[in-house]
User: Fold this.
Amino acid sequence: MRSEVEIAYDGMNVLVEKLGMVEAEKFISMIHRDSFDYTEWRKKLWPDKTVREISREAMEYRRTMDKKPI
Assistant:
């Protein structure tokens, strides 16, 4: 099992890769500032997907990322 530090490091890298540094920081600020409810956020973000489908896609994505060279 990975440590919280490893997860945070990888999470920040993904945010920066997808959003850029400024928007990644804005995203983190938004989550901290608002009373963030992940369940409600997820329902709005992927309204047509079940938790199982999202989980399966996340695991598949993780497997592809593990195969990429650093």
